[in-house]
Amino acid sequence: MKSKVLDIAWKIFSDSIYIPVFKIKFEKQYHNFEIASIEDTISKIKSDNVSVSRFGDGEFKWMSMARQDSFEKNSTKMSIRLKEVLQNEKKHHINCLPQAFKDTKTMSANKYWEREMGIHGKEWLSYLDKNVQYYNTSITRPYIDFKNKNEHTSVFNQFKTVWEDKDVLIVEGFDTKFGMGNDLLNNTKSIHRIECPSKNAFESYDYILKESKIAIDVLKPQIVLAAIGPTATILSYDLANYNGVQAIDIGHLDIEYEWFLKKTNKRIAVPGKFVNEVAQQITSENKFDDDIYEKQIFKKINGD
Q1: pTM over 0.85, yes/no
Q2: Structural domain tally of the chain?
Q3: CA within 13 Å, CB half, 207
Q4: What angle is formed at CA 20 by the lines to CA 19 and CA 22, rounded to 5 degrees?
Q5: Among 160, 107, 167, 161, CA closest to 296
Q6: In the list 20, 23, 193, 247, which could disulfide-bond 51, CB 3.0-4.6 Å?
Q7: Residue 77 belongs to what domain range?
Q8: What is the pLDDT of residues 155-181, one digit of tens each?
C-alpha cells in the first residue's frame, strides 16, 4: 500500500514538474530531427528492402541504464551495442525513433511521453544527430498509442505485403508466438522460428546471433522478423543484408494487431501470448494449434 501511494505521489510530482520542463526546454529540440511518418517508413521498408531497428523509450533507457521495471535487465554491453546501432549508418538498414519525438499531440499516452522526455531530455537528445534521416518506430505500434485508433491501421495490411510469398524466419521469445491465431502471416510461403528466452534474452545474444545465421544459411529465408525487445534492435542491425536477408525488428506488431481485431481501447491480455504491458502477462488458454507452432520451430535457445 505504501509503495502504491509513493508511486501516485511521484506521478503527480513528475507531471507537474517534468511536463513543463519538456515543453519549455526540450520540445523544439526534439522537433529538429528528421523523423519520417509512419506511412513513409513502411513505404521505405517495402520499396528498398531495408532492415529495421526501432528505438522506443525502453531502448533509450537501456542505453542510459536508467532504472525501469522490465523484461530485460541493464547491462553495459547492451548499452554500448544499442548506441552503436543508433549512431552508425549501415547500408540497407534504417533506424527508427518514437512518434512522440516527432509530436505528442496525436498520441493517447502524450502525458507519459512528455514527462519522460522532460526527465531524460538532455541525455536522450545527446544520442541523436540532426543530420541523419530517421524513420518511425510506431510502424509496429500503429493502433493502441494513438487517439484516433483508425488513423494508421492500414499499416497492418501494408506489412502483409512485405512478407507475401516469402520464406520467413521469426526470432522471438518463448511465449511470443508471433502471428499465431490470426491472419497476419497467412500469405507467407513458409515460416520457421527460433525460440529465445522471454526475459533477459540479451544475455544469450552471441548464441542467438550465431543460431540466426545458421538458420539463414540453411533455410534461405528472405525475411527475418525479430521480436525479442532490445535484442531484436541489435540483431536486425547485425543481420542487415546477411545472405541478402531483410531483418525487421517487428516488436509489438502482432499484439497490436490482436488489439486492433478486438477493437479494444486499452491494453489487454491475449490468450496464449506474452504481453509485457499487462498485469497477467501470459494466460494459460490459447486459440491456436500448438502442433502447427511446434513444427515451425527450427531451434530453441534456453539461455545461458
Answers
A1: yes
A2: 1
A3: 14
A4: 65
A5: 167
A6: 247
A7: 2-300
A8: 999 999 999 999 999 999 999 999 999
